[in-house]
Amino acid sequence: MIYEVRTYNLKPHSLPEVEMRFGEAYEKRKEYSELAAIWRTEIGSLNQIIHVWPYKDLEERNRIRATSAKGGGGWPPKFAEFVTTQFSDIMMPFAFSPELKPGKIGPYFEMRTDTYASGELPKLTKVWEKALPVRQKFGPVYAVWYSELGGLNKFVHVYPYPTLDALSETRAKERASGMWPASMVAKKEGLPDYQLLSQESKILMPLAFSPLQ
């Protein structure tokens, strides 16, 4: 399984129109395959929409994209005049990443993107295999991915919350426990920690037609 994470940076004040056009076009597009999620940024880099498409592999991705573009029905959605930049990453789920399922588990989602130093992925994998059950004691984890194509050496982890207060409360519990972040787990387990070069966090909210709410 792979996940294509597509990010559009939009002109200010254009999001309502983009959401409407995307939603209308998606009614036809989902006949070929459905989204896992589509979000807008609430905190962090503003005026973004981020949509996640699951595929069996790159071959299926290419086939579905080609077929859907020829199928009519207004796909791809027509909102190019509102887009300033766009980019796409092919993400691979770790073997221990939770299975993505539609449902109501938000509506606030924190997407954390860490860039790790070249060659650090094996260390990161070992640490997070141990660390994920620890983090799940404080609340659910939606996704744990690493990039295969696009921006390389990216590590993405996504957490749902019912409110922003719940996010703050979870952070406080993590700190008080002395069991988190993952570097604490690495230390307790005697594992070599991995080196990060940069970190980014965004708070996302689902669009009206997102399978994940």
Question: Care to give the gist of this entry?
Answer:
This protein is of the alpha+beta class and 213 residues long. The protein has helices at 15-29, 58-70, 121-136, 164-177, 182-189; strands at residues 2-10, 37-43, 48-55, 83-93, 108-116, 143-149, 154-161, 196-206.
Give the secondary structure arrangement, pairings included:
Elements: E1 2-10, H1 15-29, E2 37-43, E3 48-55, H2 58-70, E4 83-93, E5 108-116, H3 121-136, E6 143-149, E7 154-161, H4 164-177, H5 182-189, E8 196-206
Antiparallel strand pairs: 1-3, 1-4, 2-3, 2-8, 4-6, 5-7, 5-8, 6-7
The total beta strand count reads: 8
**Main β-sheet, spatial strand arrangement:** 1-3-2-8-5-7-6-4
Give the number of domains: 1
| Coarse shape | globular
Query: Regarding CATH, which class?
Result: Alpha Beta
Between the first and last Cα atoms, what is the distance in angstroms? 22 Å
Strand content: 25-35%
Residue share in helix: 25-40%
> Which fold name corresponds to the CATH topology?
Alpha-Beta Plaits
Number of helices in the DSSP assignment: 5
Mean pLDDT: 96
Low-confidence stretches: none
Main pleated sheet: 8 strands, antiparallel, barrel
Order of helices and strands: EHEEHEEHEEHHE
Structural class: alpha+beta
How large, in whole angstroms, is the Cα Rg? 18 Å
